[in-house]
Write a structure and sequence with these properties.
The chain has 230 residues and is an alpha/beta fold. Helices cover 41% and strands 14% of the residues. α1 crosses α2 (20-31), α3 crosses α4 and α7 (170-185) crosses α8.
């Protein structure tokens, strides 16, 4: 039976005059060494195991005039559809993420639609987080953030870590807290957590907290899957 390769990967293979299987391995090695082949799109996922929790992190929407496209605003709809497909497939009881514009807020809205229980981890006070990570990018993200925080705070599912916003490791600590919360909500078993990384597939360097999130999950031997933003 012919394997239903993702069309985006097939197009990439043809553009580079490569076979799809060889091209997927090439992309895989460029992202994170030894990442599972199925990780790059939900349709390539071979496991149908229902996960107790999903821990998610990813790119914010690009700033106006960004030199390198990482998550263009016009891709939000397509990325939203892919995240939704993944959550429908794995049927988590919980979603744990932060609440920045882009990946986080899209995933939290999808979880609400699917009646998945939600928890948000913020590194510092919501008002400061809103200013730094939500409303500084194009799109109407502010009201969506406000609505999410109001809903979760009233149910005890907003975690404010109370960290110093200017601390060098503030987002690293937030990443770890997201993973820890997901494990706790899965009965203490990391094997019951699906980690979703939403990005374009390229680390921007040592300060790339999305790449660091994926690496932290892999150190914990969690299942990691990817949704592409470009």
């Amino acid at each position: 039976m012919r394997r239903p390769w993702n069309l985006q990967l097939i197009r990439g293979a043809r553009e580079h005059h490569r076979e799809p299987t060889e091209w997927i391995k090439t992309i895989e090695n460029q992202l994170i060494p030894s990442a599972p082949v199925y990780a790059f799109h939900p349709r390539l996922t071979t496991s149908r195991k229902a996960m107790r929790a999903t821990a998610l992190a990813g790119r914010r929407i690009d700033a106006v005039g960004a030199d390198t496209p990482r998550f263009p605003l016009e891709r939000a709809g397509a990325v939203r559809d892919r995240i939704r497909e993944l959550m429908v497939e794995h049927r988590p009881d919980w979603l744990v993420s932060s609440a920045a514009c882009g990946s986080d807020l899209l995933a939290q809205e999808i979880a609400a639609e699917l009646r998945v229980q939600r928890r948000v981890v913020l590194p510092f006070h919501p008002e400061e987080f809103r200013r730094r990570s939500v409303v500084d990018r194009p799109g109407e993200w502010g009201p969506r953030f406000d609505r999410l925080i109001g809903e979760l705070e009233s149910h005890g599912n907003l975690v404010d870590l109370g960290l110093d916003p200017d601390a060098a490791d503030v987002y690293t600590q937030a990443n770890e807290a997201i993973l820890e919360q997901a494990v706790a909500l899965s009965g203490g078993a990391g094997g019951n957590v699906l980690v979703v990384v939403v990005w374009e597939g390229r680390s921007r360097g040592d300060d790339d907290y999305t790449a660091a999130f994926a690496q932290a999950a892999r150190r914990r031997t969690m299942t990691v899957t990817y949704v592409l933003t470009t």
